[in-house]
Amino acid sequence: MNVVGKAAFGARSSARRILGHVLRERAAPSRRLLGTDAVVATAAAAPVVAAAAASLKSARPAVGETKTPPARRELLPIKMPMTTNGVKAFFVDTPAGVSDVVGRLSAVTRDDCLYVDLEGVDLSRYGTVSLLIIYCPTARQIFVLDVFMLQAAAFDTQGPDDSGLSIRGILESKEYCKAFFDVRNDSDALFHHYGVGLRNVEDLQLMENATRPDGQRNIINGLAKSMGWRGILSKAERAQWDRCKTAGKAMFNPATGGSFDVFNARPLDPAILSYCVGDVYYLPRLRKRHWGSLSQAWRLKVQKATQARVLESQQKDFDPHSIDKIRSPWEDPLDWVPLNEYKAPVGSHAYRAPTQKRHKL
């Protein structure tokens, strides 16, 4: 054995002795019984263990060395006032985090539904995508993906297994059901910025419109008004939901001195996070309330109208800010109202009801 080999052998032997001593100390019965002593002993031994491990690493030959990949960082939940019943929300801003999300969503079955929403600056082909929010009720988890920072990595990062699945694959898959509230601008932005073609989509806005009585389907409702249906939210839930929505809108609504740029500010303001979570948290109740009350014929109508919305949003002549977007696909001539009596601010679903209805002659 040459001089270098002897030195390496000596270093390895010394390191092993130190590690063995530390392990015996940590395994002692007195340490197991006294929690405080065990913590102190472990903390005191940490530098020794680190030095021993470093010694072992430096003593190994570099040729043919096999490195173990670093452990995947666990997603940490963020505190959200909207979430209850064990639902956790996560802010995801790294490719490793996206991979973790894909792994968690891959367990969703055909009987489950994912609830999806996007936020951005002028969310459309003309603006930007800032955030992608996905709620998985079966897993009781909400994921807020930072598309502004991740860009294409938010959609194309694959999961931890070898299936090749990604967020893009989930959004474009026939196997995964995705529910949106008014899918049009979301689809427009996804398709024209990232080439994502949505499939197997449900539109809760159309469901709500379809459940109205005859003669009352002319104008579609925004999310806030749709949440006003009896039995969807309790008074306390509605009050909390309104507080989160009001605080978020105050930050991005230009009419109140805000700016849509807050969706791209980092770190993201907690009020904006709460606003995003609130947009998806109660959507399962909305779906349950309306889908269950539709006849089979109306369900087919909703499905066809939803597919038409997705296809329309991908066309060159689609106008994401058209006033005609507030028209229902099942416009009833007996409930016709001139569009100039309605206000539809860009980026808002808060439509003002007319003071008087007018009918076609």
Automatic annotation (TrEMBL):
<dbReference type="InterPro" id="IPR012337">
    <property type="entry name" value="RNaseH-like_sf"/>
</dbReference>
<dbReference type="GO" id="GO:0006139">
    <property type="term" value="P:nucleobase-containing compound metabolic process"/>
</dbReference>
<protein>
    <submittedName>
        <fullName>Exonuclease</fullName>
    </submittedName>
</protein>
<dbReference type="InterPro" id="IPR002562">
    <property type="entry name" value="3'-5'_exonuclease_dom"/>
</dbReference>
<dbReference type="GO" id="GO:0003676">
    <property type="term" value="F:nucleic acid binding"/>
</dbReference>
<keyword id="KW-0540">Nuclease</keyword>
<keyword id="KW-0269">Exonuclease</keyword>
<dbReference type="Pfam" id="PF01612">
    <property type="entry name" value="DNA_pol_A_exo1"/>
</dbReference>
<feature type="domain" description="3'-5' exonuclease">
    <location>
        <begin position="91"/>
        <end position="288"/>
    </location>
</feature>
<dbReference type="GO" id="GO:0008408">
    <property type="term" value="F:3'-5' exonuclease activity"/>
</dbReference>
<keyword id="KW-0378">Hydrolase</keyword>
<dbReference type="InterPro" id="IPR036397">
    <property type="entry name" value="RNaseH_sf"/>
</dbReference>
